[in-house]
Amino acid sequence: MSAPVAETSAAPANTRSRVILASLIGTSIEFYDFYVYATAAVLVFPTLFFVNADPTIALLQSFAVFGVAFIARPIGSIVFGHFGDRVGRKGTLVASLLTMGIATFIIGILPTALTPGWEILAPALLVVMRFGQGLGLGGEWSGAALLATENAPAGKRAIWGTFPQLGAPIGFILANGVFLILSSTIDADAFLAWGWRVPFIASAVLVIIGLYVRLKLIETPAFTKVVEQGEVAKLPLARVFRTSWRPLILGTFIMLATYVLFYLMTTFTLTYGTTATDAPVAGLGYSRESFLIMLIIGVVFFGIFTLVSGPLAERFGRRRTLIITTIGIIVFGLLFVPLFAGGTIGVMTLLIVGFTLMGLTFGPMGAVLPELFPTNVRYTGSAISYNVASILGAALAPFIAVALWQGAAGSPVLVGVYLSLAGAITLVALIISKDTGDVAYTDNAK
């Protein structure tokens, strides 16, 4: 990690409004695409693509394909990270957005396994497109975070770093809002026949808007300085493992609890909340529409506290803010079942508290992970940490949660304990790390 030195006071190459819009709209589109699949994985894909399995196995198969994207994300972080550190942030961000958008659109036009002759090919193509989604997102987040923080004025990196983070709740609300409107306005047969395709196909419009905004960007001052000084890394991947292996490990585990929390709060709660009370493994019995409305209300708090987290991280330090929040996540995991058992008020409290904690832990990450690495390997380093954490914390989370809940000795209590254990691991990583708020952002000494 770089030694603390004064920040450059040079004016950013991009205006504040351009940075906000380009970083926010890109991640909003990316997360919209990603959540469209997450929602479909619960609501329709077990029926349409895994038709020969019993309901529990079909759900687990759908979640397994959901997890394919998380395997692809570290690969995307390496590929896009290489070009982001070699060629620049702007072009790489455009490429990652196109990759994600094309894969999502194709999912929307795929035949299902119910189509004669497509019983095997349809699920296989779904896996390929899901891999493409993960590949694109693997390069998207880091580039958007760098776009924001490398253009930020001195003392404002954590605040500007929340701009791309806000794309997560916005994307979630857009994706689930579309599903909610469709499921509320067309009957179940029409939804399964064609309605589920609309959110995937409609993403093309959002991608076009995102491309228009990003093509107007100017390269970030920090990367421009790397080029001017001749410090561009020839092999960013090799260099980051050679010089920044400790930040790679710390960054991965600092993100772990954030990922586990988010995917339990979205994918698992939707599954548990909409499972019938008289099912072999009972759920809460809410209708799909009712629970989606509750989730969207909860995600509003996610967005609010994502914005709140930036000023908190600047004033009290990134590390201190995240330590307190992570302790809250550990306690929250132990309250999972008591809140679920509290009726609608209890469930809403669980969603609001959980998503509030999500905002407070996710918001500062836009600054924290990039600050762990020198400029010439920052794209690669932050992307790898972020996306390896996605495997450990998110790819496995829905699968583990269903197994802990529906297993022979399963219980929702175990799901909460799982979240608390993930929080404990993150807490250790934060305790042994250092605050990154005062590191130079144009240092290429490593």
Automatic annotation (TrEMBL):
<dbReference type="InterPro" id="IPR036259">
    <property type="entry name" value="MFS_trans_sf"/>
</dbReference>
<keyword id="KW-0812">Transmembrane</keyword>
<feature type="transmembrane region" description="Helical">
    <location>
        <begin position="57"/>
        <end position="81"/>
    </location>
</feature>
<feature type="transmembrane region" description="Helical">
    <location>
        <begin position="120"/>
        <end position="147"/>
    </location>
</feature>
<keyword id="KW-1003">Cell membrane</keyword>
<feature type="transmembrane region" description="Helical">
    <location>
        <begin position="322"/>
        <end position="341"/>
    </location>
</feature>
<feature type="transmembrane region" description="Helical">
    <location>
        <begin position="347"/>
        <end position="372"/>
    </location>
</feature>
<keyword id="KW-0813">Transport</keyword>
<protein>
    <submittedName>
        <fullName>MFS transporter</fullName>
    </submittedName>
</protein>
<feature type="transmembrane region" description="Helical">
    <location>
        <begin position="290"/>
        <end position="310"/>
    </location>
</feature>
<feature type="transmembrane region" description="Helical">
    <location>
        <begin position="248"/>
        <end position="270"/>
    </location>
</feature>
<feature type="transmembrane region" description="Helical">
    <location>
        <begin position="411"/>
        <end position="432"/>
    </location>
</feature>
<dbReference type="InterPro" id="IPR011701">
    <property type="entry name" value="MFS"/>
</dbReference>
<dbReference type="InterPro" id="IPR005829">
    <property type="entry name" value="Sugar_transporter_CS"/>
</dbReference>
<dbReference type="GO" id="GO:0005886">
    <property type="term" value="C:plasma membrane"/>
</dbReference>
<dbReference type="InterPro" id="IPR020846">
    <property type="entry name" value="MFS_dom"/>
</dbReference>
<feature type="transmembrane region" description="Helical">
    <location>
        <begin position="384"/>
        <end position="405"/>
    </location>
</feature>
<feature type="domain" description="Major facilitator superfamily (MFS) profile">
    <location>
        <begin position="19"/>
        <end position="435"/>
    </location>
</feature>
<feature type="transmembrane region" description="Helical">
    <location>
        <begin position="159"/>
        <end position="182"/>
    </location>
</feature>
<dbReference type="GO" id="GO:0022857">
    <property type="term" value="F:transmembrane transporter activity"/>
</dbReference>
<feature type="transmembrane region" description="Helical">
    <location>
        <begin position="93"/>
        <end position="114"/>
    </location>
</feature>
<keyword id="KW-0472">Membrane</keyword>
<dbReference type="Pfam" id="PF07690">
    <property type="entry name" value="MFS_1"/>
</dbReference>
<keyword id="KW-1133">Transmembrane helix</keyword>
<feature type="transmembrane region" description="Helical">
    <location>
        <begin position="194"/>
        <end position="215"/>
    </location>
</feature>
